[in-house]
Request: fold
Amino acid sequence: MSEYREQYTFGMDFGTSDFKFGPITCGDAPRVLRNRGYFPDQESIMMRALNQAPEIVVGDDVPLYLQSSEDLTSRLVYPMRNGVIDRGDSRAWRVVNEISRFGLNMFRPRSEKPFEGFYVVASLSSVSPRYMYESIFEAMTEAAKDGLVKAATVISQPFAVAIGHGVTTCVVVESGHGNTQVCPISSYPIRSALVAINRGGGEANSITAEILKDLGYGDLAREEAFVRRVKEDLGLLPLDLESAVKAAKENPIKFKAKLKVPGTRVEVDFADKSWQRFLIGEYVFNPQNELFQSYITRGMPRPKDVKIGDMVFEGMIDFGEAIVRSVEHCPVELQPLLYREILLSGGNFSWQPPEKLRDFATDAPTKMKALLRDKGIKGVSVKMTKNPQHSVWHGCIIYGYAVPEDYRWNWERMEGWLPVAA
Amino acid sequence: MIFQAEGTSVRVVILDESFWVDRQTFLNSIMKVTALAGKSNRTYLALPKTAASLTDARLFQERGIGLFTYDHRNVDEALPARYFEMTTAALPQTDRKAADQLENEIRELRAQVDTLERTVQSLSEELMSLKRMGSHSEPVKPYLPTRALPAVTIADNLPTFFAGNPWVEVLSRRGREEARIAR
Reply:
């Protein structure tokens, strides 16, 4: 392996919420920034007075430039919110370019040693259409003009997860904010068996917001960061929704859901509606239960089937059905091996049941096994990735270090190095 | 084995892999774990995976007993155990009503043990017949490349997630294996 790449392999994980990045020399953990950019209002009095507002701000400085909360939705851009960026969304692409360059510059060597640019491995959603790969390569080519990049490649996030976890035959279920991807891997990603679901952590946020509105916290329900906090602190994943709701209605004190934000007067109390905690987790894994119908009738968006590029993202399929469908697209001999290694990755699978509620609340691997059992699939092994927050970046680094330099990019196999250095 | 933390106790009865086919030992493990259910916050039976695929989990679920399955690579929680609240209430004084209750429970337990015995007998027979079928098939021979590829050396100063990762070798062959096949 090249000594140069022992120092200058660089990984970039463009997650829906966070951008994780850094060279191999970061060790076990990358740097993390919110994957977003802010476009300050150049016409505002404050910005004119300062006379130094940049056109776009990324990184830790974003909160310093935030103006009124009404501006947040228009000026604060999360480019990868749904895993896919529209071809014509120039602001989103601007953020991607800016944040990539920000990350590369942060680690540009300052020593006298000759530096020819990083070997960059970027990771995108497995459902990203070809133009996204092309745009990333364009961004790297631009960065190469400043001597930041020597060669670049792009791998899919599920593939990176399998590499980071160290399993060569498996099914990776990657669930982020906007969508969930089920991807079988057998030394290579089996792209023909990919199943995409138009549901992710964002759906848990949506139902949490509806629950908060019903409880009288409509103002708080408009703040995404707060809704996310309620989801993470109070949301539960039920092993069986009907029995969990029944138990919680019979004993609301045992299942009580109350959250106070330290340093503020903000407090949320579900009171006798604490059973609704279980709706938050269930909606992500299986939105077909009729309990959700009332929210959909009253205006909560129902996860729809959408087509992006050549890929159809199904809205209402449950996660167990998605895994079965994906595996059954693979050779029969491979199927038992795939069921024996199902890896769950992504923040959307971080469900930790309180010990005293473990009769009714569960974690993601147990829930997934139950969904597969309902489909007649037994004897499966479902695990969380060892390091769910960083496994994609780990996979990028291993890929960048190990793949030979002369393995050139090929649009048929969607792998290989694209030399971009000037 | 008993595990305790933060006021919660978990008891695990392990059926050794080598004793799985011994009917008496298997029965003893089942009866032991049934008797222990409720004496800890959670009670589990740990079975080898070969046994678990033939086990009806509903029997254990009804009694609140959880199941772990294991092989030489993994231990998995196949069925969560019910949580039993432990109380320190004083035992009631013996009276006629309590004695009747105990007798009824013993009767019920005996009936359950009978059912379990029949189930285990049937499972044992199924396992024997599967073993006989399995011995007729040839073992799968692993694929071995006809020419060895050069070994991959990894530098010492790499992050810990490189250690033991098979992908380093798999990825180092990208392009090399395709070229060999093309020739």
Summary: Residues 96-134 of chain B form the longest helix (39 residues). Chain B touches chain A through 34 residues (CB under 8 Å). Residues 137-149 of chain B have pLDDT under 50 and may be disordered.
